[in-house]
Amino acid sequence: MTKILRFPWLKILLYVLLTLYAVITLIPFLWALSASFKPLSEIVGGEPNLIPQNFTFDNYKQIFLQEPLFWRWLFNSVLIALSVTILNLLLNSMAGYALARLRFAGKRFWFLLILAVLAVPAQITLIPTFLILKAIGWLNTYQGMIVPSMVNATFIFMMRQFFVNFPKELEEAAQLDGLNTLQIFRHIVLPLAKPALAAQAVFVFMGSWNNFLLPVVILFDPEMFTLPLGLNTFKGQYISYWNYIMAASMVFTLPALGIYAFFNRYFIQSVTFTGGKG
């Protein structure tokens, strides 16, 4: 940073490179947005134009008014993603706080087990998850989509590391005021953990919202499909309706952008903690 301030041309070069990277990153999104207003013939024509030559809203009319299951897919995705996010925020935070602050038998074992789970790719757990859900009759159900995803070892570890650096003085002061452990966690710890919770909420929501592997394994009734799985139905063996796929993809992107925009303010907050590690 000192070198950049000393040599202004380095700062200019940095901004040029970042601008170029931003443009390269935005081009696919802008093309998809443009394609959502094009007829299929113009998309498959091969011309890489960002401005539609035959501008139309028919693609959006098709998915909203003539595709009977689109609203159901949207509802399923919203319900599952919100449920998974809320449960993760609660359970991951509680588990992280317990590992960071509480004393109980097997604490080290559970922490090492969570670290071991981090090394296991999610794809490996798909078949065991399918067999368990089949055994208990949860295939093609909301609970079958929500329960396996309601905790995440990565974010348990993240919250544990956050709470390890949380100042004990605040908790000790709350104990002197007569608060028990649950009240301290609810009224003192969680309000000050907003930056960590916001980051977790964004990543968990987007992970659940974009999830394709789990739905394709356990959902088989079209009425239970989520949006990623529903969009796949627009692709056939001989023809793919890219105009409908692009229009639905734009609708699919809006909730994720909204979640990020809502929690973005917490990313720029700087919370400085004092005191030793727990």
From TrEMBL:
CDD domains in the cross-refs: TM_PBP2
Gene Ontology BP annotations: transmembrane transport
Main location as per UniProt: membrane
Subcellular location: Cell membrane
Residue ranges occupied by any ABC transmembrane type-1 domain in the UniProt entry: 74-263
Cellular component annotations (GO), alphabetically ordered: plasma membrane
InterPro entries on file: MetI-like, MetI-like_sf
Superkingdom of source: Bacteria
Keyword Metal-binding: no
Family, as annotated: Belongs to the binding-protein-dependent transport system permease family.
Record has GTP-binding as a keyword: no
Keywords: Cell membrane, Membrane, Transmembrane, Transmembrane helix, Transport
Signal peptide: none
Topology versus the membrane: Multi-pass membrane protein
Protein name: Binding-protein-dependent transport systems inner membrane component
Segments traversing the membrane: 12-33, 73-97, 109-133, 196-220, 240-263
